Amino acid sequence: MGSQVSKQVERRNSIRAEKKVLFEMKQSNGSEFPGSDYHPSDRKNWMLSLNPDKVQINQIVWPGTHDSATNKIGFPFVTRPFAQCQSLSIYQQLVTGTRVLDIRVQEDRRVCHGVLLAYSVDVVIEDVKKFLLETQSEVIILEMRTEFGHDEPPDFDKYLEVQLGEYLIPQDDQVFGKKISELLPKRVFCVWKPRKSPQPKAGGLLWNSGYLKDNWVDTDLPSTKFESNMKYLVEQQQVTARKFFYRVENTVTPQADNLILCVKRVTDRIRPYARLFISQCFSRGVADRLQIFSTDFIDEDFVDACAGLTKARAEGNA
């Protein structure tokens, strides 16, 4: 018992020290970067407002959500706090400005996070299609993957093609250098990541796992995650030379050996430092490698930061 208490005290001290590191870095270095003062007047159409004829796909800094479809995961006040990573519905996230969705599914086409379940993936698809019908130039990346420990739904690739076919951007390395307007009316990069079934084939309507990469660091320590994100970003090519999407996630994750297991309380250790991360990318000379930037519990300020940097890139200021 005494060793467990000692361990928890040590963990709390580590967390407190790491939060202090990020706070002091923000105090001393600030969080400004090219485009940081930009705030879209219409976040639902922020890509349109930047002019689709001028913005290239590889210039976009894509605001994304981690475990996107968990707003109604599990049971309220019982299991939900341990798995909920977003409070908004998929449609609300898209209207807020989210442009990358991370959807985990299991055998029966229900969205899940570990062993906890949410709604049918049909709800996700309907929200996506509703948003697409209400907009004209907004492009999204829809990542669908089989949750760890599960099998994929039967014929799920065919399901995605039938449901989203008219919007799907076919797999093609050339699109990264194209402008948004050159892809329209196609507006969805659908990345399908099955665990056991064959990956989508080259040239098809779905993109395989090789086109959306990241380096997930499983920690609840905010400065550790911040610096790990930076370390892996340094190892990437510039976005203009890249033929795939690379994601950095401004999140930290509850750990089983820590008494604090609610996602919101844990991830709030790093959420206030999204703009600091972008600013540090410039300070450390790797801003030209930042592409997808994802978060838990996305908000308007996070979207504005990504949209602002996208605007600065499109105007040649970053």
UniProtKB/TrEMBL annotation:
One of its GO terms (molecular function) is phosphoric diester hydrolase activity. It holds the Pfam family PI-PLC-X. Transmembrane segments: none annotated. SMART domains: PLCXc (SM00148). InterPro entries: PI-PLC_domain (IPR051057), PLC-like_Pdiesterase_TIM-brl (IPR017946), PLipase_C_PInositol-sp_X_dom (IPR000909). GO terms for biological process: lipid metabolic process. This is Phosphatidylinositol-specific phospholipase C X domain-containing protein. The lineage of its organism: Eukaryota, Viridiplantae, Streptophyta, Embryophyta, Tracheophyta. Residues 51-187 form the Phosphatidylinositol-specific phospholipase C X domain.
